[in-house]
Every structure is written in C-alpha cells, then in structure tokens.
Amino acid sequence: MNSEQPDGPGRDRPETRDAAEEPEARGTPVGRRVLLGTLGLGALGVVAAPTLQRGLEAFLGSAADKDPTGLTGLLPNGGGFRYYSVASSVPRKNADTYQLTVDGLVDTPRTYSLADLRALPQTRMVKDVQCVTGWRVPGTPFEGVRLSRLLDAAGVRPTAGAVRFTCFDGTYTESLTLEQARRADVLVALRMQDKNLSHSHGGPVRLYVAPMYFYKSAKWLSGITLTEDVRPGYWEKRGYDIDAWVGRSNGRDDEPTS
C-alpha cells in the first residue's frame, strides 16, 4: 500500500536523548566533494521524480492490462492507485472508435461518441477514492457528465428499477439501483486528476460512483442498460456487497468519501 502510517498506540517510537548522551565521535567527516555530489543527486531526484513517477504509473497500467491475476496491484506505486483488470487484455478506444450506448427499459435508446459526451455539461467533484482492499487516494478530482442526465435523455420507463453497466473489456459488469444512479455524485467520467482519463485508469470513459467503494466505478464503460431489478456485477457474484457504501459495507469501517 502506498500510504504512510503515522505513529499511534502500539507503534514503537524512537528513543529521545539529551545532547549530553550523544557520543562525541560522530564518524568520519564528509568531504566537500562528497557533500556537493550528494546534494546534486538529491536535486536531480526532485527534478526527475515526477517524470519517473509517470513512467512507473504507465508501466504498471500497461502491465495490468495483461495481468488478469491482479498481482501488478501489489507493486509499489507512488501515485496511490492500484491497477486491476479481470480480462487478459483490453482493447484501446479513442475519439474515433469509442461509443457508449444507453438502452434497455428506455423510450429512446441513445448512442454517444466521445465528442458527444464532451459537448454535454460537465460536473467536477473532488473526493477521496477508497478501494475495498484498503488503499485510499485523497482529494482526487473527477469530471464528467452526470449519469442522471443521460438517463433523462433516454426516457426511463416506469418499469425500470436498476441500471446495469457493461465494459469494453468484454468481462466486467456493475450495477446500481435507479435511485443510486440518479445521485448527483455519480458521473460518467471523462477526466481524472484534471487530465483526460488514460487507458490504464479506465479511459476514455468510466463510471464514477463517489460514495461507494471503487469497484463500483467500472472502468472502460461501454454500455448503460436499464433493467427491472439489480443484476449483481462481476465482483458481487464473487462475494462483494451490491450496495457498496464506503464505511458501511463489505465489513469495513473506512471514513466516508462524501
């Protein structure tokens, strides 16, 4: 996990000493050239850190695309996120090839291109991201179209009670009740951390359900289908809670994200 654990009950703290207890001999003095060289390396590290971090995140994201085991999620990553995929590979979509369908129990099925979604009013929110496996990324900006806007445009029929989400990895699915889907903090997200969604983060379009554990925020979103009842998604069929409120489900007591 990429989080620093503060001192707390049960944690060992270093012993404190008065200055008189310190031995006079403090080792061999550091030469001027060594000192300057060390400072130079430190400065280089500060300058190079963002580039190295982006490279590491890109590598982990690419590796995760080819790792259905999820083991790449155990590798250190200073960005705080872990990269998971349940498919052996995921095709890449761009502005020319991406489509999002809204169908099922609606009056007017719709198909959106990436340009169509970008042309709609955008909502930006900044919330913590909490994974059910324990890691948390605080203050993460997401931006996109409120899911409720797409539902209203399609005309939800009275018999509809839930929404099923499918993904262009061909494997992952998710679901929400219709009431949950209409919340103001549920987005069809196009941007994350003030950048267009990268492929490894589920781009070009993903679901973002701010108050729920991150597995509900399906990556590589391609389909929104209105159904009568909730249909358990990929992880729900494997034991995760369907209603995945942060801190109130899955046997966890995390702080809420909203």
Portion in strands: 15-25%
| Percent in helix | 10-25%
CATH topology description of the largest domain: Sulfite Oxidase, Chain A, domain 2
Number of helices: 4
Second-tier CATH architecture of the largest domain: Alpha-Beta Complex
- Kindly, what is the distance between the CA atoms of the first and last residues, rounded to a whole number of angstroms? 22 Å
- Relevant CATH superfamily of the largest domain: Oxidoreductase, molybdopterin-binding domain
Protein name: Oxidoreductase
Region (Disordered): 1-31
Biased composition (Basic and acidic residues): 9-25
Domain Oxidoreductase molybdopterin-binding: 89-235
Could you please describe the fold and organization of this structure?
- This protein has a 5-stranded mixed β-sheet with strand order 2-1-10-5-6. Strands 3, 4, 7, 8 and 9 form a 5-stranded antiparallel β-sheet that branches.
- A hairpin with a 5-residue loop joins strand 3 (123-130) and strand 4.
- The protein has 2 domains: 19-74, no CATH class; 99-238, Oxidoreductase, molybdopterin-binding domain (Sulfite Oxidase, Chain A, domain 2, Alpha-Beta Complex), CATH 3.90.420.10.
- It is built from 4 helices and 10 strands; from the N terminus they run H-E-E-H-E-E-H-E-E-H-E-E-E-E.
- Mean pLDDT is 78; it is low at 1-67 and 69-78.
- It is an alpha+beta fold and 258 residues long.
